[in-house]
Design a protein that fits this description.
This protein is of the alpha/beta class. Helix content is 43%, strand content 15%. The protein has a single domain, classed as 3-Layer(aba) Sandwich (Uracil-DNA Glycosylase, subunit E). It is built from nine helices and seven strands, in the order H-E-E-H-H-E-H-E-H-H-E-E-H-H-H-E. Helix 3 (55-66) crosses helix 8. The protein is globular, with a radius of gyration of 16 Å.
Length: 205
Amino acid sequence: MENIKSEVLNCRKCELWKTRKNPVVGEGSLKARIMFIGEAPGFNEDLQGRPFVGKAGKVLNELIESIGLRREDVYITNVVKCRPPENRDPTPEEIEKCSPYINRQIKIIRPEIICTLGKHSTSYIFKKFGLPHDNISRIHGKIYRVKNLFYDLLVIPLYHPAVAVYNADMKSELVEDFKIVKEEYMRLGGLDENSNTNRREKWIR
């Protein structure tokens, strides 16, 4: 993961490096069973070089804690590592240029569950794993199995936590979807003190 961080710091594959303050590689446990993948850093993330530290990050923290976990138990990152100007959506070209980093992070973490946060993250991950994609409003909270020679994991698309910042009524939707995440996590042996201890060996920021 340190190699990826170094590469991202020196990355010039697209134009975002010209306007960023700090790239945001990701943080959390390298032994995480759950990996949260957002779209791109925002204003606060760009300032601190950490994922989900603004208002949406506060919502995400609460949701993670609602299922009995902490930030250090999971791994949090984005598909695009640099903030798009004015918090605009990342372009398809920017996602394509940055995608090798998230692909390598998935290989390193080897999560049992990937939770995509928002439409762009969901679109990319579904395309990567050959899953049938639809509007996030139709597929959020559903469980998709990926099983092939290289991966055996679940993908659970979720609304981006920012929706609860702008529309408080959406918080209940996120809470219900996180209950599904918790159910699958427990089914896979999560929230067991002994099994979690073995997965909590390394924390990286």
